Amino acid sequence: MAFDVVSLGELLIDFTPVGVSENGNPVFERNPGGGPANFACAVAKLGGKAAFIGKVGNDNFGRALREFIGQCGVDTSGLLLSDEFKTTLAFVHLDASGDRSFSFYRKNGADTMLRTEEVDLSLLDGCPYFFCSSVMMAEGESRRTSFDLMRAARDRGCTVYFDPNLRMNLWESPDEVKRVNLEAIPLADIVKISEEEIEFLTGDPDYKRAARAMKEKYGLSAILVTLGAKGCFALINGEELELDACPVKAVDTTAAGDSFNGGFLYALCRTGKGLADCSAGELRSILKFANTVGGLTTTKKGAICALPSLEEVEQMLEQG
Ligand code: ADP
Known about the structure:
Blueprint: E1 5-8, E2 12-20, E3 26-33, H1 35-46, E4 50-57, H2 60-71, E5 75-82, E6 89-94, E7 100-105, E8 129-133, H3 142-155, E9 159-163, H4 174-184, E10 190-194, H5 195-202, H6 207-218, E11 222-226, E12 232-236, E13 239-243, H7 256-271, H8 280-297, H9 310-318
Bound molecules: adenosine-5'-diphosphate.
GO molecular function, one term: fructokinase activity
InterPro entries: Carboh/pur_kinase_PfkB_CS, PfkB_Carbo_kinase, PfkB_dom, Ribo/fructo_kinase, Ribokinase-like
Domain Carbohydrate kinase PfkB: 4-308
């Protein structure tokens, strides 16, 4: 079966704080996490065909993760269960003002140990879009695997969609983050980046100027800059498009970028056309759809649990 999208990346447990126990100790909830997994679930929840490539431990956490994304409709035949390495864990901490920080337990984490030789590349056959992010490039075997799969996807004619999704504390140094991301971007066709990320990678605080320069320098077909509550800015084909965010009351922005990615590729697949054949009007509708998927995800707490269905997105779009 050919998939609409194949996503490579980390799938891990996010332990999020949910209060205090009777003994006065913090209590954490076991949530599925990982941007590329959120992305695949977003596509599947909208009704698209999504497959996930990655590795988790053959432990309780890993098996629960596989079951969870499978129940979301994602094909998990490319998700390996390792007897050697454990599922990666992340703990979310909230400070007094509600700001989040992460502690990662990822040294030799199963996701980072995925090797190219273990991947069933036939999943890419006939698939129009391959998705990956730089979190898999931060450490371990999975850096080489990510680059290998970007090349393998290109060789098979897939359009490569790359999300730098910078998580600075997973890397050895800021210089390394920059170097590796700038090596990956030329292997992509479409790059989705946030305002802060493009400033970090280019040194230019003007995201429009930075996006124009990046598209030109790396020969990209499209660059999508997401701007949180301000919406998005995109350079696609010869068009410059700017769209306001969906008017929602945001309660938790976790996975907004991942679901924007899912919404974008789902809507693009639905046109039955490649990006280069879409009119300016069609591109605007695709971006509006992506903004709506991203916006609706912020109205509920959590990541995968907060992803909207197609009906919810269409209802929101009808309301204008
Ligand atoms: P990332 O999670 O990658 O940093 P953003 O925070 O820019 O990405 O969010 C991605 C998209 O989700 C935005 O372009 C926008 O469409 C939507 N979004 C994010 N935050 C909000 C918000 N507060 N209100 C409405 N839409 C939002």
